[in-house]
């Protein structure tokens, strides 16, 4: 069976019959174990949608935009759902551990796969820097770790998560399953307590829980609509791991049964946990009570005088950071292997161990995490923050590539060259076009926000130049590998 990538050259001329479609095969898919179960995929899906963006970031965002934050979470959640639904359709068409990189190769050629893959690596390699440092910082909260240097704690966190990823996909799945359980349990407990406090009009630090905390403090938009719009560029990255379940689908036995349920569940979970939590936070306390220096959940529990609440929430936030690191190592390992097998990533990133784990790519991402610990120690805060903002460019690029692949897939289905599965992205092609316009608007909002965000957008030409330069380095190897496959 040929695994030749269909390129623009294969497009039929007007009036000519459509060529026969040969199923695309990704060489990077060989060797994986189908060890992820339904419960793993379901919790990976929800775990990817819940992270530090809610547990830690919601406090500062609430203080800046007021109760209107729930609108920003709802809007971004809808587009995140469109992205993962589009990816879910592609997965059911052809499951692949290379995920959107593999689909970009099929529908856009090797240049598309190269661009999608390295933008994704850009996102996770910089995010790994944040995750390792965050884990060490959160561990220092407890006195038993206070005397241990931060870089030691960071390396311990990296070593534990790295070991789980390198041994077997089963260990990754189990670790992510329990990380997600902890995050979900914490949110459910908070929401149950919050609903009780609102229903009973309980006193919280001198404020009565209820609608008055919104109406008596400027309403839903206490500072106008613009602060909420500017927050969208930060909120969108709270959903930056939703695409992970598409990567994991390549290592499960029955993706056609598991994926639709996992993807569809993301929508109501986002509505319940993100939007529901923010609305509850607004009802429990005035938005002015929250700050960016403290988890909003800790703020509520502190004002209630509940002992040990800060320690419990610190454990949850630590779990969220480790979960993010776990996901990043897993997904970049699979993406880099897919790229390596086509020549657009270093050869060593395509190597697998006996457990069916692409350890070369995982180690490359882990190496960036180690560099991040050093950078965090010696670089000023602004420079470190700039590195983290670069991750935002990576996720916008990744989501954009997924939607472009989905759009090209839809077009080919109209030409009769591919058949869409019964599980489809609704309202195509308008959904893809509107999502791409939304992602473009996020870049505009980043530029309007000024400061580090504007500097990040101004780096786009430099990132583009690096991608172009990198392509000229690898293109001969890519063409050689493609020619060899053509012969076979």
Record the SSE blueprint:
Blueprint: H1 38-49, H2 52-55, H3 57-65, H4 69-93, H5 99-108, H6 110-139, H7 150-167, H8 169-199, E1 203-204, E2 207-208, H9 212-215, H10 226-235, H11 244-248, H12 255-284, H13 296-304, H14 309-340, H15 359-378, H16 381-415, H17 430-449, H18 451-458, H19 460-487
Antiparallel strand pairs: 1-2
- CATH class wording: Mainly Alpha
Strand order of the largest sheet: 1-2
Class per helix and strand makeup: mainly alpha
Number of individual domains: 1
Query: Which percent range fits the helix content?
Result: 55-70%
Oligomer: single chain
* Percent in strands: under 5%
Rg over CA atoms: 23 Å
Walk me through what this model shows.
The protein is an all-alpha fold and 488 residues long. It has one domain (29-473): Amino acid/polyamine transporter I (Up-down Bundle). It contains 19 helices and 2 strands. It has helices at 38-49, 52-55, 57-65, 69-93, 99-108, 110-139, 150-167, 169-199, 212-215, 226-235, 244-248, 255-284, 296-304, 309-340, 359-378, 381-415, 430-449, 451-458, 460-487; strands at 203-204, 207-208. Strands 1-2 form a two-stranded antiparallel sheet. A hairpin with a 2-residue loop joins strand 1 (203-204) and strand 2 (207-208). Helix 6 (110-139) runs antiparallel to helix 16 (381-415), helix 7 (150-167) packs across helix 8 and helix 17 packs across helix 18 (451-458). The radius of gyration is 23 Å and the shape is globular. Mean pLDDT is 84; it is low at 1-21.
Descriptive keywords:
488 residues, mainly alpha, Amino acid/polyamine transporter I, two-stranded antiparallel ribbon, globular, disordered N terminus
């Amino acid at each position: 069976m040929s695994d030749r990538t269909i390129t623009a050259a294969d497009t039929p001329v007007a009036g000519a019959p459509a060529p026969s479609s040969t199923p695309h095969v990704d060489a990077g898919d060989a060797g994986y174990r189908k060890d992820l179960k339904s419960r793993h995929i379901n919790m990976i899906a929800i775990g990817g949608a819940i992270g530090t963006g809610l547990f830690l970031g919601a406090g500062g965002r609430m203080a800046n935009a007021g109760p209107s934050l729930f609108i920003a979470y709802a809007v971004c959640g809808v587009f995140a759902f469109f992205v993962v639904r589009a990816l879910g359709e592609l997965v059911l068409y052809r499951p692949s551990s290379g995920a959107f990189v593999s689909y970009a190769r099929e529908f856009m050629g090797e240049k598309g796969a190269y661009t999608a893959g390295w933008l994704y690596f850009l996102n996770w390699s910089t995010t790994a820097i944040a995750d390792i440092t965050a884990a060490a910082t959160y561990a220092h909260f407890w006195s038993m770790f206070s005397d241990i240097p931060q870089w030691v704690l960071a390396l311990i966190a990296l070593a534990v998560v790295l070991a789980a990823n390198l041994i077997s996909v089963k260990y990754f799945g189990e670790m992510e399953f329990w990380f997600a359980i902890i995050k979900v349990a914490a949110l459910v407990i908070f929401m149950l307590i919050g609903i009780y406090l609102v229903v009973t009009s309980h006193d919280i630090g001198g404020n009565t829980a209820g609608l008055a905390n919104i109406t008596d403090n400027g309403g839903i938009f206490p500072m106008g609509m613009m602060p909420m719009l500017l927050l969208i560029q930060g909120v969108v990255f709270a959903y930056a791991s939703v695409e992970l379940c598409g990567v994991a689908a390549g290592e499960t036995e029955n993706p056609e049964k598991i994926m639709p349920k996992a993807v569809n569940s993301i929508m109501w979970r986002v509505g319940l946990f993100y939007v529901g939590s923010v609305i509850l936070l607004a009802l429990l306390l005035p938005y002015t009570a929250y700050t960016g220096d403290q988890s909003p959940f800790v703020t509520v529990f502190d004002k209630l005088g509940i002992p040990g609440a800060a320690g419990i929430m610190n454990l949850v936030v630590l779990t969220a950071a480790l979960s993010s690191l776990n996901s990043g190592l897993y997904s970049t390992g699979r993406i880099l292997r897919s790229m390596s097998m086509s020549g657009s990533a270093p050869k060593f990133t395509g190597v697998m161990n006996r457990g069916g784990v692409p350890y070369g790519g995982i180690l490359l991402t882990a190496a960036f995490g180690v560099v991040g610990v050093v950078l965090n120690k010696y670089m000023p805060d602004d420079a470190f923050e700039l590195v983290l903002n670069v991750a935002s460019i990576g996720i916008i690029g990744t989501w954009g590539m997924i939607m472009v692949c989905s759009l090209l897939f839809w077009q080919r289905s109209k030409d009769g060259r591919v058949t869409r599965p019964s599980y489809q992205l609704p309202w195509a092609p308008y959904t893809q076009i509107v999502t791409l316009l939304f992602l473009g608007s996020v870049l505009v909002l980043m530029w309007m926000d000024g400061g580090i965000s504007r500097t990040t957008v101004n780096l786009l030409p430099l990132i583009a130049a690096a991608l172009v330069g990198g392509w000229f380095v690898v293109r001969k190897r890519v063409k050689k590998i493609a020619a060899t496959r053509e012969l076979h």
